[in-house]
Design goal:
By secondary structure, this protein is of the alpha/beta class. The chain has three helices and three strands; from the N terminus they run αβαβαβ. The protein has a three-stranded parallel sheet, with helices on both faces. It is flat.
Length: 112
Amino acid sequence: GSCRDPNRFQPEMIPFHEAMIRDGIEQSIAPRILISLGKDDHCIGVTFTPLVAAGLARKNAAYIHFDESMRQTGHLAAMSPQFATTYGACVVDFFSREEAPVKGPHVCVPAD
């Protein structure tokens, strides 16, 4: 909450979140990764997209990265019914197919 609530915003939380994101990506050994950090997810007015995109690009894994451009916003956006309707089929396909997906970025086109 110290980063999401503009009334309690603490600038020192930005480096903390950056370190947590960087470490999480670097330490991941999963062959398939999904990261969702939509607009105003953690720190309102701050984007972690360049950090996430650069970290994922260095991974030897297949990944989906939902960033500020996804339709849902805010913390827990990827847990909303709207997210499931918009991107659910793509996410399920990405994680459930038996053959390993091609390493690198995968894009989920919004369902209308």
